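[step 3/7] fold_predict: job queued, chain A
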Amino acid sequence: MKILVRSRLRVEKDVIVRIARSLRGRGNFSVKVGQEVHPDEIIGSSEVSIGFRTMNLAALLSISPQDIKKYLKKTLGQRIYKGELLAFKPNFLFMDKKYVTAPTDGILDYINEKNGEIRLTLLPRRVNLPAGVYGVVEKIDENNNQAIIRTQVTKIYGIFGTGRVREGFLYKITSRDGILTHTAVSPKFEDNILIGGSLVTKEAVTSSISAGVNGIVVGGISADDYKSMVGRIIFPKKMENDIGIAVVITEGFGSIPMGEGIFDALSQHEGKFAVVDGNRATISLPSFSSSCMIKIRRTSLAEEPISTSYLGVEESEPKGVELRIGSGVRVIGSSFTGEMGKVVFIDQNEALMPSGIRAYMVTVETKRRKIQVPSTNLEAI
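[step 4/7] structure written:
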């Protein structure tokens, strides 16, 4: 008797891949092709504009909007520093004198005499770019402001997702079977990646985008919520989908606890730098052991066009393997979804399921118990 079950690559350790490290604005790289780098090494820097500040000067001085130029102490295009005098109305006709100081460093770049508003464009700040990984610089792409680095990662394959490549530090928000709701999301997670449990709500995704979160990795999602993010559910889907955040679903539609292997790998990497590709449903966890440089140095990757996305091994299609005593398996259906263990017994005769389907019953020993599952609800790991 030969029973075939599907096998899907879920966690792949010690893979040599390329990643792209991007400057946030126009700038320069301080590394060269062939140079070895470590995670904390600064490989480049750029000037980044961080926005503007609008003030209603007429209201602050209690004057007519058309008079604001009369009391301004700075001219259009002039630089001003925090605390410096911006506008002053002297004491006359028994009225108190009033003054306004600059709330931040900036440049006065807009005056509206119709509503009395002025705008200060904040001065750009210099942002350093760390390598984030151990690796070897393969290319400096000045057109895209990127350094391409060959490095070693543990690669995790989800089922589906959405969003372009993003990076950040991992933060575990829930237990393996917990629900990631909007109440757990806050601005302190800006530029980082959240690890959920069995389900993420649409409100949590919206709150994460508003808070500047870069990515979410979770076991399941409502089919309706996923459809609202990507438009239509089509597999394989296009690779350019982006809603302002990278989302990777590791198990499927509905509330499904994240698989133990994936959850353990992410938990062990918590607080460390990672790369998430929502459209390809992959998470890459760079090695933070300096010994990985041995394999990185001696491994050459095939020449290929280097895109602006994370580059690595593409997810392979599920394939059938023979189920045997001792095989490592994961439950993909029934009330035990997501549990993992090893096969200890396989029935010799098919049983008739309530659904009308015949299948061989398989006894699986997990960390906590022994469970009996139809072979059709198992995948090899």
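[step 5/7] annotate
The helical segments are 57-61, 68-71, 202-211, 223-230, 260-268, 293-298.
The CA atoms of residues 107 and 287 lie 43 Å apart.
exit 0
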